[in-house]
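cron nightly-structures :: item 1 of 1
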Amino acid sequence: MSDDEADPELLGLLRQSLGLGLGSATAPPNTGVPKSAEYVYDNAVDVSISSQYTKAAAETIWKLMQKRNYSTENWSEHELHPKVKDESSVNFIFTMNLLNFSFWSELADEERFTVDYKDRKWTGYWSLVAALQRALDE
């Protein structure tokens, strides 16, 4: 299989994790994102995607989600995630994903970027979510 072809096992794992099958009535609408991603994949000079490590990452994430019983159903249980399922939550998630980027840091905890929110200090991904929640509160 070349790097230009989708890995059938990875696609199957993704479909399984999303509860989708070929021709499923619950399949998401065609957004054009895969076509745009394909263009980036085919034309990017400074970015490459390893099929081997993409598959390994997907398998690791899937196993951890199963082990921790994590799903879209319990995502909102975290204190910073939206609780209601309405347009404001969709807007929040959309904004969060637009702003989201790597929050990995090799700095010690006390040196990392933090956001103070509800009497706690948040770092990494949670600092973004806390900042958005605080902005909505203010």
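cron nightly-structures :: done
The chain has a mean pLDDT of 80.
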